[in-house]
Design a protein that fits this description.
Keywords: Kinase, Membrane, Phosphoprotein, Transferase, Transmembrane, Transmembrane helix, Two-component regulatory system. By secondary structure, the protein is of the alpha+beta class. It has 8 helices and 12 strands. Helix 1 runs antiparallel to helix 3. The longest helix has about 55 residues. The two termini are about 70 Å apart.
C-alpha cells in the first residue's frame, strides 16, 4: 500500500509539472510573437497622441521605461483587474532585454507573471510585455487536487479489495510461522498445511515438510539410540556384575580362611579362572560392538562414494572351511561339515567386505550352533543364489521358538531371563555382532527353523561378479 501511495503521489506531481511546463511554454510562445508588435503599437499611439489611448489585448500588461530616465509608463488591458507585476528598471544593456527570453516575476498578491522585454524600434525606451500565470497555476493546482483525490480513492479501493487477497496470499506463510513456533516448543510432529498450489509457496511447504519429516525421524532415531544405549549399559553392567561377584566371593572366602584344603583351593581357583575368562570374553565382545558402532557412524558421516580402504574381496567358502576346522580343534566330539548350498558343488563365493569382520560372523554362528546343541551334526552350507552369496549354519538341536527368532539378534537377549550363562557359555553378544556386521556389509541375517527340528541361521550378502 505504501508503494501504491508513493506511486500515485509521484504520478500526480509529475503530471502537474509537465502540465505546467506545457502551458507556460504556450504563454512564452504567445508573448514572444506578440510582445514586439503590441509594444510598438502602444508606443506609437503614445508618442503620436500623447496619451495612452491604446489598449492591449486581454491579459496583457505593458510597461515602457524611457532610456532618458523618465518615469515608466504602464498600459493595462481593459479587462485586467488587481495587482500588476513588479518589474525593475530594464536598460537596453540588460541581458533579459538583449536575449528576449521570457522570465518570471510576481505581483503584490504573490501571483506569477511571465515577462518578455525588448527595445522599441527607435531605441527611445525599453518595454516589458507581461501575461499573468494565475489561471495556469490555478489549473495546475486543480489538476493536482483532482489527481490526488482520484489516487486516494483508488488507494482506498485497492486496500478494500487487496487486503483480503493479501491475507489469503500470505496465509500459507503465516501457517509456516505458526508451525515453526510449534516445533520450537518441542512438537516435532507439526507439519505445514499445503496450500494446494504449484507456486513457490507450495514448493516451500513441500520442502519444509520433507525437512521436518527428516528432523523428526532423526530425533526419533536419536531417542531410540539413547534408549538402546541405556539398556545396553544396564545389561552390560548386569552381565559384568555376575562374574565379578563370583570372583570377589571366592577371594573373600579364601581370605577369611573358609577355603583351606588343596582340593577346595584348586576348585576355587578354577572357578575364579572361569569367571575371569567369561568376563574377558564379554569385554572383548563389548569392544567389538563399540568398534562396529563407531565404524557405522564413520560410514554415515563419510561422503557418498568414499571407498573403505579395508574392503577387499572375501571368499565365504574359505571362511566357512576355516571356521569348521577351528571349531573341530576345541570341540572334536562334534560332527561338522561344509556343504554346497541346495546341492550345489562347493565353489568360490566372493563378496566385498572386511575379512576379519566376516570371519567373525562365520565363527560366531558356528560356535553358537555348537554351544546350544548337545549332539547331532552341524552343516555349514555356502553357495550363490542369483546375485547374492548365501551362508547357512544348520543344527539339529532344540531350535528357537518362532516368536523369538527376530529377538535373538538383540544384545544380551535371553529366551529365559532367569537362566544365567555358565562359564562355558557366550557373552550374549555374538549374534548381535553378527547382525551388526552383516548389516554394515549391505546384507541380511535371519533365524529359521530346521526341517526335523533345530535352528538355521541364514546370511545373505551381495555377490561379486
Amino acid at each position: 500500500m505504501v508503494l501504491i501511495a508513493g506511486a500515485l503521489t509521484a504520478t500526480a506531481i509529475a503530471l502537474a509539472v509537465l502540465m505546467q511546463q506545457f502551458l507556460v511554454r504556450q504563454v512564452d510562445d504567445q508573448l514572444q510573437r506578440a510582445a514586439a508588435p503590441v509594444a510598438q503599437s502602444a508606443f506609437d499611439s503614445f508618442t503620436t497622441a500623447g496619451s495612452t489611448g491604446f489598449r492591449p489585448p486581454n491579459n496583457y500588461w505593458i510597461q515602457f521605461m524611457p532610456v532618458n530616465g523618465h518615469q515608466p509608463i504602464s498600459v493595462t488591458a481593459p479587462q485586467s483587474t488587481g495587482s500588476t507585476p513588479r518589474v525593475d528598471y530594464l536598460s537596453p544593456e540588460d541581458e533579459r532585454v538583449r536575449s528576449g527570453r521570457p522570465f518570471t516575476v510576481t505581483d503584490g498578491n504573490g501571483d506569477r507573471w511571465r515577462v518578455v522585454a525588448g527595445v522599441d524600434a527607435n531605441h527611445v525606451a525599453t518595454y516589458a510585455v507581461a501575461r499573468p500565470l494565475r489561471e495556469i497555476d490555478e489549473a495546475v493546482r486543480n489538476l493536482q487536487i483532482f489527481t490526488l483525490s482520484v489516487g486516494l480513492l483508488a488507494l482506498v479501493a485497492s486496500a478494500l479489495v487487496g487486503w483480503p487477497l493479501m491475507n489469503r496470499a500470505f496465509r500459507p506463510l503465516t501457517q509456516i510461522e505458526d508451525t515453526a513456533a510449534g516445533i520450537a516448543e518441542g512438537n516435532l510432529s507439526r507439519r505445514v498445511p499445503h496450500p494446494g498450489t504449484r507456486d513457490e509457496v507450495g514448493s516451500l511447504a513441500t520442502s519444509l515438510n520433507l525437512m521436518l519429516a527428516h528432523v523428526e525421524r532423526s530425533f526419533q532415531l536419536r531417542d531410540a539410540s539413547e534408549q538402546k544405549m541405556r539398556r545396553f549399559v544396564a545389561d552390560a553392567s548386569h552381565e559384568l556384575r555376575t562374574p565379578m561377584a563370583a570372583i570377589r566371593g571366592y577371594a573373600e572366602l579364601y581370605r577369611s580362611g573358609a577355603i583351606t584344603g588343596r582340593e577346595d583351593t584348586t576348585a576355587a581357583m578354577r572357578r575364579i579362572e572361569d569367571e575371569a575368562t567369561r568376563m574377558g570374553v564379554l569385554v572383548e565382545d563389548l569392544m567389538t560392538l563399540a568398534r562396529l558402532d563407531a565404524d557405522e557412524q564413520h560410514r554415515l558421516a563419510a561422503s557418498p562414494g568414499t571407498d573403505d580402504a579395508e574392503t577387499t574381496e572375501v571368499d565365504l567358502t574359505v571362511l566357512a572351511g576355516d571356521a569348521v576346522a577351528d571349531t573341530r580343534a576345541w570341540a572334536p566330539e562334534r560332527t561338522l561339515r561344509v556343504q554346497g548350498l541346495a546341492g550345489q558343488p562347493l565353489g568360490a563365493t566372493p563378496v566385498a567386505g572386511r575379512e576379519p569382520a566376516l570371519r567373525q560372523v562365520v565363527t560366531n554362528l558356528v560356535a553358537n550352533a555348537v554351544r546350544h546343541t548337545t549332539d547331532g551334526p552341524i552343516e555349514v552350507q555356502v553357495g550363490r543364489d542369483r546375485d547374492e552369496v548365501v551362508l547357512r549354519v544348520v543344527d539339529h538341536g532344540p531350535g528357537i521358538p518362532e516368536e523369538e527368532r527376530e529377538r535373538v539378534f538383540e544384545r544380551f537377549y535371553r529366551s529365559d531371563p532367569s537362566r544365567q550363562r555358565g562359564a562355558g557359555g557366550g557373552s550374549g553378544l555374538g549374534l548381535a555382532i553378527v547382525a551388526t556386521t552383516v548389516e554394515q556389509h549391505g546384507g541380511s541375517v535371519r533365524a529359521l527353523g530346521t526341517s526335523g527340528g533345530g535352528a538355521t541361521f541364514e546370511v545373505r550378502l551381495p555377490a561379486l561378479g
